[in-house]
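Example 3.2
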Amino acid sequence: MQLPQPRGPISAGLVDALARAPHDLPDSLAAAAGAAGGDLDDEDLQLSLHVCYELHYRGFDGVDEDWEWHPSLLAVRRAAERRFEAALRRLVPVPAAVPPAQVPGALAALVEADDGPGLSKYLTARATLEQFREFVMHRSIYHLREADPHTWAIPRLAGRAKAALVEVQADEYGGGRPERMHAELFRTTMDRLGLDTAYGAHLDAVPAVTLATNNLMSLFGLHRRLRGAVLGHLAAFEMTSSLPNRRYGNGLRRLGGDDDATRFYDEHVEADAVHEQIAAHDLCGGFCADLPEREREQQTSLLLFGAACALALDGRFAAHLLQRWEAGESSLRQPESSGRSLVGALGA
């Protein structure tokens, strides 16, 4: 993956530095990353965070791997993370803890209370082929590394919570069969839609609202203190997945998608119905029940916070797409970079 086009002074400073050998970044860059601003909608902040986090995933072509743990780069990331986390806490007040036995019910209540925009219904019945392709481009930022952010939590768990997370993740990674990995199934969907399937190919095209949903997972997954939040995020992900994926698959079929094009969505209808129960009860409920008393209240509260953040940011993402589409506009920053022509996509 190539380094992205900067979107402001912070990301410009990072991109310029990463293209060279590791060196100390100026203190002013960390100061700028921590300065108050648009935060969740700030293109410069969200891209900068994404760039910092990507160094812990697959990295960028030509970037020295020693940048991953360079102290001055971590200082920039830390400043940006503090700003991002503060914005999340303003958007979603941290819920009060509940007893471990009530955690699955509390998660279900958060999902039930969520009244986010009906993006899946729109994609089922109204979306054009170009709009569906845009949706897939947005989601490619996560789905081409699907499950990876949540996997960071595995070494931070023990007992039944660890076993439950491994069970869920094993399915996400295809149960040992590379062609069944969910990231590979999504790559096939992209290919059938005539899109560039390379990892990170559409990073420059997607806006801050999309990057924020991905940065949220990395923030939670990379910090041990937030391990409860990443589990809550995963639970919310699984508990709100089955029905929307059924709708996505049906919407793609309506537009001419064949079995290969829809397999990613069809796979999630059944798998996530099972994962929902594992995540809510064995993973989250088990995690909270097995915590030492001194940690239980804080981590249980963070777990519910992680779920609430997942729902809130996904709602903001859906609202952005629907508002732009209803206005007859593209939901992307760079619509012209959408990949191959529609000619040939799904046989069009």
